[in-house]
Amino acid sequence: MVKQRLQALVLATAFALASMQPAISADISHEVRDGRAGGFLEAGIGLFYNRVPLVAFIHEDFDESDDGGLSLHIQLEGRLEWRNFFAETIDTSFSDVAFGYTAWADHDNTVEWVLSSQFSEYSPNEAAGFEALDDRDGDLTLGFRSLHQRDNITLQFELGHDIANAHNGLIAAALIGRSWQLRNWNAHALFGLRHFSDDVINHYFGVSDGEASDTVAAYTGGSGTLASADIGAVVPINEDWLFRTNLTLDRLPDSVVASPLASGRMAYSVGAQFVYVF
Amino acid sequence: MCFLKPTLSTLSVTLLAALLIPADARAEPQQLQARPDKCVSLRQGQVCYQRVRLSWQTATAGDYCLYDASDKQPLKCWSNATRGNTLYSFASQTDREFHLTRDNNATPLAQARVTVSWVYKTKSRRRRSWRLF
Question: Where do the domains of chain B lie?
């Protein structure tokens, strides 16, 4: 619900903001992937094959949760800026949507205060055998994000704390990305570490005594770090259309893998899409 | 004989043109084409790469050379030809012009342009500024 509400708010903001300002930055995944800072709006359609070894993420049957799934992917991605305020939704970013305020900026560095949704609502009870589990509320984290650009290398640091009383946990991240031009193709590589405090892990992947059953054991997890890598490439088709492809790998934290809600360690997504740039 | 009037008018214009336009120009309706004539890069300022077919034709056989306007060396020359084409590896951040000359004459007989455009316009980052404190 939180995710849907925020997405609706982003769209409303998009129409409400009459002028798009020259920009400073955006999430690292957009900054590195497309090498561009600032306001933008894109719509894309493509096919992706995803595997997320978590209960009810892709398949409702736990036995199939190890398997991947092919999906038609329709995206609306953009960033709007007004004075120093911004609203953004970046498809390849960890956070679904973000609102923020740019506190400091120079040519190569920015520091932003960011309000974002890191996790949307999770309903493991949609899987057979897990009906006794409660829904996990989506969060809303408030914190800061800094971006640093050196030639073709971009660094991003994030720190956020849940203020929606979903898990009241802390999330910290460090990411590094690089891009290359290969004729008219622009390739990128991103690597990141995202640390979750035990409150976060337990909220989404813990199983309380009240939820435990004969099929699902109670579980309390500790803090954990997610390692992610993303490689991809984009090529212009003409002045309005792009072709974009990427592969994302995620190595789940030990404390998530040990949860009864996980059935594996590695998650991945591979696909390609056509993107229209407004 | 009203129906003759347009025909006579056309004939008059043709004769007048024949008298006014120099003989050399009349003899050589030169044409130089670049296909494709546009190169698209992802971002403004990037070098754009494109294989471009440059083709030309004239009415008069002669010695012709094709030039990149920014280079004194010809891309390719032809002897006693009325037409020709060549594949050119375009790599530029900006528009480029090509021209066809005859007998090492500096005056171009025909010109063609390959334009460079992009998907993302480069936006300047803001200057150093504190906004919070």
Answer: 26-119
Q: What distance in Å separates residue B115's CA from the closest CA in chain A?
A: 12
| Burial letters A215-237, b for 16+ CB under 10 A, else e | ebeebebebbebebebebbbbbe
Interface of B with A (CB under 8 A): 40-43, 46-50, 117-120, 122-132
Report the alpha-carbon distance of residue A90 to residue A83 in Å, rounded.
Answer: 20
Residue B104 burial (CB count, 10 A): 9
On the CB side of A209, CA atoms within 13 Å amount to: 0
A151: distance to nearest CA of chain B, Å?
14
Provide the CA A264 distance to its chain's centre, in angstroms.
20
Give the integer Cα–Cα distance in Å for A90 and A78: 6
Whether the Cβ atoms of residue A108 and residue A95 lie closer than 8 Å to each other: no
pLDDT tens for B14-69 read 444 444 444 444 445 679 999 999 999 999 999 999 999 999 999 999 999 999 99
For B101, the enclosing helix (H) or strand (E) is: strand B96-102
- In CATH, what class is B26-119? mainly beta
